[in-house]
Structure formats: structure tokens, C-alpha cells
Amino acid sequence: MNDMTPIATTLKDWETDQEVRWCPGCGDYAILKAVQRTLPQIGADPKNTVFVSGIGCSSRFPYYVESYGFHTIHGRAPAFATGIKLANPELDVWLVTGDGDGMSIGGNHTMHVLRRNLNCQIMLFNNEIYGLTKGQYSPTSRLGTPSPSTPLGSVDRPASPCAFALGSGARFVARGYDVSKELPSVLKAAYEHQGAAFIEIFQNCIVYNKDRFDDFTAKAVADEMQLWCTDGQPLLFAKGAKGLALDTATLTLKVVDVVDGDWQAAGVAVHNVKNRGLAHMLVEMPFGAFPMALGVIYDDPRPTFESVVAEERRKASANKDADLGKLLAKGQTWTVEETATHGLMD
Amino acid sequence: MATLSAEKATTAQPEATSPEAVVVRFAGDSGDGMQLTGGQFTLSTALAGNDLATFPDFPAEIRAPQGTLFGVSAFQINFGSSEITTAGDAPDVLVAMNPAALKTNVQALKPGGLVIADTGEFNKRNLEKAKYETSPLEDGSLSKWDVLAFDISALTLESVKAFGLGNKEALRCKNMWTLGLALWMFDRDRAPLIDWLRGKFAKNPVLADANIAALNAGHAYGETAELAGPLRKLHVDPVPAEPGLYRTITGAEAVSLGLVAGARLAGLPMFFGGYPITPASAILHNLVKMKEFGVTTFQAEDEIAAICSAIGASYAGQLGVTSSSGPGIALKGEAMGLAIMTELPLVIVNSQRGGPSTGLPTKTEQSDLYQAVYGRNGDAPLPVIAARSPADAFECAIEACRIATQFMTPVILLTDGYIGNAAEPWKVPDPATFAPFPVSFLEAGNNGEGPVLPFKRDDRGVRPWIKPGTPGLMHRIGGIEKGIDTGAIDYSPDVHQSQTEARKAKVDAVALAVPAQEVSLGDVSGKLAVIGWGSTFGPIHQAVRRARRKGLDVSHIHVRHVWPLPRNLGDLLKSYDRVLVPEMNTGQFKTVLRDQFLVDARPLNKVSGQPFTIAEIEAAIEDMLA
């Protein structure tokens, strides 16, 4: 977020005249709406907002937001964003990437944009599949995923985007999913975080990986399998009937039953967004035995890359004369006189 | 102390001769400080008013195993009292710090040339490493040359004894001892080097004193040792140069300064995204020290991120620049296509090296011409400029900035390892004489009340540059084919046909905005044109000059604008009976010329990692005219 006067806009102001070309029922529609709903809430200014994407279904996103937008090349959006933000730190930069774009071909750039802490929002749409290339398994696909390139089921284990982000030095890690009504509040928190804010958004690919996330997003299981993290609040789920506690013997989290709402008696841990160790445990919990941790899991700002670069440039330039003539004549020079004799200048 | 070889071809030069030009090569272990010695000798040569050209030649390994043949590092300088455009063919003097340096370099020495060798290093172990069965200093195998062999190691140790250095540190002063001797031989002033040593070792005055003592001892050795024979003073007269302020400049420095000047002439801050690679890193190292000129440097995580960040900066309204060498340029290819497709300004500097793949990281070659002109997917034209010398690289960098910003296109600037590392005297230009080319950003809509048209072309086919942050001009760009004017996704058949043609026409039109091709030396028609590009300028120029002195009808044409080619070049080439194209590749420019003009261009190719010698090109000219 930048220090700018909030601009009054409505959802409509953020819609373009472009025909949206995602498959009917794609989770991307819901994410687009959530973003267009969030932007007026945070007072974003269309002229100072830039959406940057790579390649993939999700990367068509910039065409559908009435702001500046750059649809770049596969996996490289973080590098473009870095140049944009260093050139003009006043711009509000949103990255749109996917599990293939951001974790596979562009994994290197994802790591470095997080490590450097460029002030931007990184939305990684995770549908656990390559959609635009017709359904191959992706680096986040679960073991055994059958696909055109893995007809017998995938044999390599999936990467965990949030664990990768924390390992890369991210200072903000959050999770949401496409149709969640909480998604705008997660995006808002990401926007308010100064620095690289990483948001993994589980997204339903209606064609190639339909209902993949039903095991925690379906209405019937949502309460039981979703744990929404709120800073300063106990880590409760199942309508408060269960919680997460620290197993001091193994230094891992464990699920405990909460009787009569007395979560303290059950030893339920209180969420602290600045606790990096807890964040690691929350994103690494094996799903099934544990619920899916959602919401703002980690949020502990550090100076942003562009501010440090600007400060370094300011210090290095202080009291220095930007005289091109002097620059060209630097070093040891000599003068050739009209008479073709010569002398040492300096 | 001095042991002169018994039999040698005496050159019988008189005392303090004044040759027109002298070529000296310093060769030693990569840890011996040969590049430093050469660099300082270059500076003293420039200060003495000689014109000069240098050729640093070093191994890819930072510290190759001591004494080995592949660990030899050499630095050649050609200096003289008339115009010097090459590093010289064969050295007159070879300073060999060990047997391996002698073995790998002596064959290049002119017959009758002088070898100065350090006997302290010609021990059994080093001779074995250099694969000598007997010492060449004693077995008569060097009889073609004058040999001056004495124990430089022992003399150096003696000269720095007073400073209490360890043996290893003391021997590190050998290069300064040798430099002192060379300064005496060529009648050079020691004062600037003493100043330089004091500055370099400001934090360690003992080392400064020791190095200065070694330098003085080497000089005194020449002055006082009773030496007969080959060691004699040579005085090279200053070249009559155009009056003005001069400095020495390497190609990497010239590119850096040219980019800074170019960005200023465009009225833009500069963003430089780079990734370490030999021999291009020097540009990043230079620019990082120029922050006060509005330069932001970014060492990216890889070559791709380096160019993508630069494109991002151009999109945001700065002048994006990236730089690399062949392998890194290959990685940048896809992003170049995006810059072509989105029509954003960008300067890409390729300091070429020997290829393919990792190839010859520290050796020079011109084999990335196809890569520059054709090396992208799709029909993806962009202008290509080639610098011909270190000093020329300054103007070329400005030209690249001009074309990139005026035509909204990426531009490739080709230099090579030779240009990048070599130094030459440079008459410092006055910035007031540079013609500015300020850019203007679109500030208001170009479509009445309708949405902005980011790809509406002007009469030169150039689209407007629109910075994010500009009110009311929000729009989207990307790598997918786009509709005429609107930039909205549209890959219908007619649109792609039309946009492909428009991108080509825009780049073709650059030829109208650059000077017509001139003839560097000779006539505008005749029996033979020798046409080159890039760092072959020196040897071609000298070879043509020599051939013309012999009365041969030959002219030299040197092309800066490799793509699009100058508009008159085809007609010019057709006005000669024959065309010869010397290149440090297997004939890439030759193919381009044949394709563009249907001329019978004949190749002369060299891919040994070493520049052409004048003699090689001269022989080819004589063959063509025989």
C-alpha cells in the first residue's frame, strides 16, 4: 500500500470493456469479483494501480481490471514488477500468477521477489493443474494425479506454495479460496502490508480439476475442515468445538477438543501473525488429520526493497555533482596542446 | 646476473632508436598480475602521448594452477607515434614470467624480437609443467630471438628485503619490478605509477613502499646494469594528436558512459538490470557507481529477470537497459520478443565471446550476429548496432538509446570481449555538443472521448509511450497479438498480418534515421571492398592502408548499423568488382549481405578466440586481387 489519498470508486469502475474469456464456472470469476470488490474498499486509484501477470488462465486477469495492466511472459511477472516498482515506487502493483506460472517455470522469480520484499501483492491462483495447456499435472498436484502427461498418476510430490514462500523469506503469507466471502478481507490485509504479500488462493478448475478442493470448501465439511487464523484469537475450528494446541513433546501442533467453549482449558494456542515458527507449522499441517489453515497466517513487515534501493541511491548521490562533462573526464587525463606537446593534467 | 643466450640473430639497432610503433606482450601466471602490469603500462604510454591499442588475453579460471600452460595470462600493447588501430600482430618484446608463459607466447614474437625471461622461475618443476624437456633458455631453441634472461625473482626479493614481507608477498612485487624495467626501456615517467601505487595501497603503506621499491629497482636495473646486446632504450615519439583533453577508455567504460549520456539526452532516468557474466559484468560494476546520474542498477536473480526488470522499468517510464554475453542473451530471447510485441524502448548490450554454449568466456568472437538479427521466435525484428572500438562504443551506446526511445523498440548493441577489455586513448567529448532527443509521454487521450489508443501509430509507425500513473489513460498491454490501435487481444488473421507488417516497417524505417554508409578508407568504387563490422575495424583498416600503399585498388567499409542496414549500402557494394568480409565467425555478416543485396560477398573467417592480424587480412586482399 502506498501513502495515497483514498479514491472513491465502485466495483463498476474496475470493470473493463473486455469480454471475460474464462470457462463458465471457473473459480477465476469469483476471484476477479473479490478483487474488484476490494479495490474500492481500500481506496485504490485506478491510475496508480498496475496488474502484472505471467502466462496461464489466471494471467489473463489484467485485461479485466480497469487499471494499468501488463500481461507478460511465462513465470516472469515478479521480475517485471520489480522493474516497475523500482522505476516508480508510487505505483500499486498486484501480481497475478498460478501454480504452474509461479511455482514451476517462475519459481525462481517467486523466491527472489519474496526474499527482496518488493512492496506488492502476489496472488497465486492454485488450481493444482495446468489449465491453459489442457490439463497436465502441476507442481502442486497431489501425488497420483492422473493427467494427459501422467496417465498412470503423477509420481512426484507436490510443493507447498505457502511453505515455499516462508522459506523464501516472505513477511506476509495468507490463504483463501475463490468463492470464500472472506477473500476480500484477506486481500485487504495483503494490501495493507508494506512489502511482498503472498496470498495462495485455491481456485476450482471446472474443466480439468473439478471440485478438487471440496474436501474443505464444500458446505458440508467447511466448518470441520477450515481453520481461519485471526491475530490474537485462539486457533479454533468446527464452530469452536476443536482447536490447535502445541504438543510440547514433539514440538508440533495437535488437534484438541474444546469443551463448553473453554479453549484455554484445552490448551488452544492463540494466533500471533508475527510468530514465524507457528506460521511454518500452520502451513505444513497435513491436511485431513488437520484442517486447512486459511486467512492471514503470517504478517511481520520489514523495510521494502524499493525503499532501501531508493535510500541507497539518495545517500550515494548526496552532495555529488551529476555533471556529465566531469564524469566523462574522470580518471587520469592528459592534454594535447596545439603544439603537439603534452602534459599531465591530474 | 644477466645471462644472454650465446647465439642470436642480432637486430643491430642503434642506441635509443625511435621506431614508429612497438608491440610489447607481458605474459605470466594468471596470479602474477599481468593484467595490472599491462594496464599500468598502458596508462604510462598514454601519458607519454603515444597512440595505443591493447589486447588483454586471460584464462577463464580466476587462479588456474600455477605454472601451467592453461593458466597463462597475457596483455599485449601496441603503441606508436602514428595512428594505432590494432593491438599489433607480432610482439617486438615478450616479457615471460615463467616457462609456461614463454611456451604459449614465444611463437608469436617477431623474428629478432626480444624475450625477457625470469630465470628464477625456470626451475625443473615449472619446466615440467610447461612440458619443456630442457630449459629453452639454455638449449638454443630460442635462437631466432634475442634473449635476456636473469633472475627477476631474486632481484625483486632483494629490492623489497627492507620491508620485511613474507616470501610469497615479496614475490608478488615481481610485476612491478618488471614494469619498472619496461618503463626504462621505453623512456617512461614513473611518477604517475608511484602515485597510483600509493593510492591503491593507501591502507597498507608498507605494501605501497615495497611495490614502489620494486618498480624503482627494475627501472634502475635497466639504467645501471652493464648490459650489452638486446636491452636498450627505445624512445617512441608522441603521436601528433588533435588538441584537447584525453583519457584512456575501455569498451566497457565507454558503453557505461554512453548509456548515461544517452539517458540524459533522452531526458530519462536509467534502469539497468544485469546478471554477472564474463565479459559483460564490468558494465554493471561501472554503472553502480553512477547513481547520482539517475541510474538505478539491479543485480537480478538470472538473465531473464534482468531483462524483464528492465522492460518493467521501461513500461513505467524509465530507459530500461540490460547487458550480457551470448549465453545470457540467449536466455533473454523470449523477453526481447515481448518488448518487440509491446513496443517498449530497451537497450540490450551483448559483449560477445566465443561460443556456442559456454564456449570461450574470456576470448573474443563476433559469432552472435545471427542471434542479434534473427535469434527470436516469430517475426521479431529489432535494430542492431555494432561498436568498432572502445571509443566508438560511447557513440554507439548513445545511438542505441536514441533509436530505442525514438522508435519504441528494443535495440541490441554488439561489442565483444576485445572491445570491452581493451583500452585506447579517447578525446573527451564536450556534452554540450551532443544533440538531445527528449522523449515525450502521452499525457492526454488520443481518441477524443473514447478510451486511449495505446497502439495508435504516428506517421513513422511508432506508438505513444504511456506511463502508468497518468490519469485517464489506463490500458492493458501484453505479448498476445493485439488489435490495431486499441491493443486489446485480437489474433484474427488480418490483424496479425497487419501488425506483423507494421512492426517490420517500423524497424525498417530506422534506416531512414541513420546516416548513409560511408567509406572508411579508399574510394566509393573500385576492384575490391573489404567490409567489416565491430572490432575487426583495426586490422581491416591497417591491412587496407598497407595494400593501398602497395598500389592495390581496395577500400574499407565499416558498418555500424548492422540492422537495418544503411539504405545506400547495397548500391555502394555493387560499385566494387569484388567484396571481402573478414569476420570472427564462420561468415554470418557475409550471409546477411548476400541475402539483402544479392552481392557475391566472400568470407574471411577466424574463430580462434584471437583477433585478426593485419597480415592475415592483407594476405586475403592480395589473394582477391591476384
What does this molecule look like?
The complex is a heterodimer of chains A (346) and B (626). Chain A has helices at 27-41, 77-87, 99-105, 107-116, 161-167, 183-192, 214-217, 219-225, 263-266, 276-284, 305-317, 324-328; strands at residues 49-53, 68-71, 92-98, 120-126, 172-177, 196-202, 226-229, 236-237, 242-247, 252-257, 292-299, 333-336, 342-344. Chain A has 346 residues and is an alpha/beta fold. Chain A folds into two domains: 11-233 and 271-306, 3-Layer(aba) Sandwich (Rossmann fold); 235-270, no CATH class. In chain A, strands 2-1-3-4-6-5-11-7 form an eight-stranded mixed beta sheet, with helices on both faces. A three-stranded antiparallel beta sheet of chain A has the order 8-9-10. In chain A, strand 8 and strand 9 (242-247) form a beta hairpin. The longest helix of chain A is centred in the N-terminal third of the chain and has 15 residues, at 27-41. The radius of gyration of chain A is 24 Å and the shape is globular. Mean pLDDT of chain A is 95; it is low at 340-346. Chain B has 626 residues and is an alpha/beta fold. Chain B is built from 20 helices and 21 strands. In chain B, strands 1-7-6-5-2-4-3 form a seven-stranded mixed beta sheet, sandwiched between helices. In chain B, strands 10-9-11-12-14-13-19 form a seven-stranded mixed beta sheet, sandwiched between helices. In chain B, strands 18-17-20-21 form a four-stranded parallel beta sheet, with helices on both faces. In chain B, strand 13, helix 14 and strand 14 (410-416) form a beta-alpha-beta unit. The longest helix of chain B has 20 residues, at 205-224. Chain B is globular, with a radius of gyration of 27 Å. Chain B starts with a strand and ends with a helix. The interface between A and B is large, with 64 and 75 residues. Strand 2 (68-71) of chain A pairs parallel with strand 16 of chain B.
